[in-house]
Amino acid sequence: MDFQKIIKDAWSIVRLDEAAMKRVAAQKDGFNSALVVIAIFSLASTLSNFLFPANLGYGVAYRPGLLDLVITFAVGIAISIAYLYFTGWLASLFKSKISVQEFVNVGGYVYLLGILLLIPKIGGLIFIIWFWVVLWKILSKLGKLEPLSTVVVIFAPIIIAVVLVVTVLSTVIASFGLF
Questions:
Q1: Cβ density class 136-161: b for 16+ within 10 Å, e for less
Q2: Domain range holding 136?
Q3: Res 179: pLDDT
Q4: Exposure of 105 by Cβ count < 10 A (0-12 exposed, 13-18 middle, 19+ buried)?
Q5: Over the stretch 85-128, which tens digit does the pLDDT of each residue have?
Q6: Whose CB among 82, 116, 136, 176 lies 3.0–4.6 Å from 123's, allowing a Cys bridge?
Q7: Total structural domains in the chain?
Q8: To 10 degrees, what angle do helices 100-110 and 66-93 make?
Q9: pTM of the predicted structure, to 2 decimals
């Protein structure tokens, strides 16, 4: 595994280079390389949480401890992989020409954009918008999906996750009698 090649390919993919996307999708060890990029993203996200503490109002800020940082790193990797596999599976339901594993291989490289999270305030917004743009390109060009199908495939996992979180949180809050 050549780290410089992984970063170079990831950089090409986030610049919307279709040839790089096809090359990475076809790699046999693509998941391992994608995992390296996802780990970089998760590390950047974790560092961002530490360097830029959450402002809770009234001059109170929350800076995570070591255990919080370790958990954030691990959960970031797990959620990123789950999102890619679920999105790839959804794409296959819409008759995508790219396999689930090929999508995960290429999609994992897109997480190089996670380094933008180290830019306070605006980095996260730039990250998510360009992340969706690159996924759009992957699904529309490599997957040959129609525009409406592409939108559904990209956003359905996010909507489902939000609904699940709201449902679980409201159930937990209600069970403690806080409603």
A1: bbbbeebbebeeebbebbbeebeeee
A2: 3-175
A3: 57
A4: buried
A5: 999 999 999 999 999 999 999 999 999 999 998 998 899 999 99
A6: 116
A7: 1
A8: 140
A9: 0.88
